[in-house]
Amino acid sequence: MSTQIPNTETTTPDYLLGIERGHPVRVPITARQPNDSATVAVSQAPVTLSGNYTLTAADDGLVFNASTALVLTVPSGLSPRPAVIVVPPASGNVTVRFSGGVTGNAATSDILRGRTANLTGFVIQPYAEADAYGVSGS
Predict the structure, then answer these.
(1) Which of 30, 47, 85, 137 could form an SS bridge with 63, CB 3.0 to 4.6 Å?
(2) pLDDT tens track for 30-75
(3) Is residue 138 part of a domain?
(4) Containing domain of residue 94, as a range?
(5) How many domains does the structure of the chain reveal?
């Protein structure tokens, strides 16, 4: 079940992703880009990742539980650009890799996230700029 959020003007970043009562929630800060709808997921179960994975537009609003160390690739040209929550594995890291000119935290280099510093997970969220994402945590 999802609820559509109407389009308005855009600034950076355009929404936050969080968890409310165990479910991912997208909260608009300002507007979305024209022709880009935002979805609030209210009953989606977390998805377990047991190997390397490439995000798709259909992953928007999902929570991923990594069961092992893996590489999560963010490709260019996704529409809408997905916002996801990732819970790192008990041991090892999730490597967030950006391909095709995509930037994460204003760089194209890999970002590593482990559970020790990110007990409740981390967020990958798109900025208003094309193919630019922010990655929370440390």
Answers:
(1) 85
(2) 434 443 444 434 347 899 999 999 999 999 999 999 999 999 999 9
(3) no
(4) 2-128
(5) 1
